[in-house]
Amino acid sequence: MTNADEDDVGLDSLAASFGAIWETARDRSVNTAFRARYAFRWLLDVLEAGLDGDLAECGVYRGGFSYMLARAIVLAKASKRVHLFDSFVGLPEVGQKDRAWYRQGQFRETDGLKDEVERYFEDQGMSTVVRIHAGWFADTFRAIPADQRFCFVHFDGDLYSSTRQCFESIYPRLVAGGVLVLDDFFTVSSGLREAVREHLRGSGELLFAGPEEAVCLVKGRTPGPSDEPYLLDPAATDGFPVSMEAVAGDEDYFRSILEKGANRLTIPVIREQIERLSSQVSGFKTMLGYHEKVLEWSTGRTAGRGPRQACHARWDLKTEDRARALSPRAKSTLVSRMAEVSAATQFAFGVLIVPTLGGDSIKAVMGEAFQSWQLGDRGVLIAIAIRERDSRIQTGPSGRRVLGDDDAARILRESLDPHLARGDFVGGLTATATAIQAILESIE
């Protein structure tokens, strides 16, 4: 039994708690650790931003994913609740768009599932943190009070009709900057994907691809210039903007693909399905484009290149957060600022954050990254090793002509260290880049 009032770690340490939280939750969820971690990082971003509103899980199953959400807000000491929406008797009537893949009553686990989920949260000491809304989405969504607001929603409703109901009733209650994570977008079934596309036609928002089948929408977030390096080919996404930014630096995910060969097997299967079913079901191009891009990036790792480099060889910004110190929104902010500095100075910037040096020197770790990323003559690499509390700036020959070791040490001391002492990685890195920019712009 977990006491919801003990072991409060606060938001700063919550990211490190994911493993322990998921270990408790995973047997009661159909999600994988990759998708769970993806959603967890978006949740951290929402909590860090201090957005108003509660959390919601639409499609609860046995409550494992819901436990992860509830435990996170308890540990973060956030004054929020998790609203759980589910029929607890499987899928509703299946419409024409989904009949090739689903059937009514599918995913019905057992009689009395609602009672089982209620007992589970009672046993975990979290019955006051969650509120269960049992029934079809068409009914329970309509019963939501008019003033109810959400900051984070995880949707696993599978069907076109259920997804449309989410966009009609839940999404309007999502606050600006709030996050909607949707499972099962990159699958052979097209209903959920079609409902998402209908929403995007009206909103113009940017869709963030996640590991495996998951995607995310940040309410009001439309594409900008800093997103261009991460966008899938529009020809593979029916013209809608789909960004790979949130998954591009997931080392564990790419490593798993290489080890299991999952996408090497999946892509031929998808191609066969496209040929066989293209006259019946639309939307396969999006799924195929995503899987091919992930395979391309993961294959690029075997050639000693980062995932982004494998796809965008001419892109002049590399960011690799091996320590996962940055939330998706924080990383997006950093990428945007680094892109501005890179454009202004015509230098290729890189950022490397590692959890530990593992006995190596930071100079050696940086040297390997500098070479593999091909930063070259006009390259600048800023690196942070968290456990060792070490940092360093490395430049190519052109940069070294004006940015000596003394200048680099001063910039780290004055611009980076004060921010890192507060846990502000983005503030420290952007201040460091700004200080470097001022020196590099002195080059004639």
Short description:
With 444 residues, this protein is an alpha/beta fold. It contains 17 helices and twelve strands. It folds into two domains: 212 residues, Rossmann fold (3-Layer(aba) Sandwich), CATH 3.40.50.150; 125 residues, Diaminopimelate Epimerase, Chain A, domain 1, CATH 3.10.310.
What does this protein structure show overall?
The protein has helices at residues 18-25, 33-49, 64-75, 113-123, 137-140, 160-170, 191-203, 245-248, 251-260, 262-277, 284-302, 307-311, 328-345, 362-372, 397-400, 405-420, 425-440; strands spanning 54-58, 82-86, 130-134, 150-155, 174-182, 207-209, 215-218, 242-243, 317-321, 348-354, 379-385, 390-395. It has 444 residues and is α/β, with parallel strands linked by helices. The chain folds into two domains: 11-222, Vaccinia Virus protein VP39 (Rossmann fold); 316-440, Diaminopimelate Epimerase, Chain A, domain 1. The strands form two sheets. The protein has an eight-stranded mixed sheet, sandwiched between helices. Strands 9-10-11-12 form a four-stranded mixed sheet, sandwiched between helices. It is elongated and about 70 Å long. The N and C termini lie far apart (66 Å).
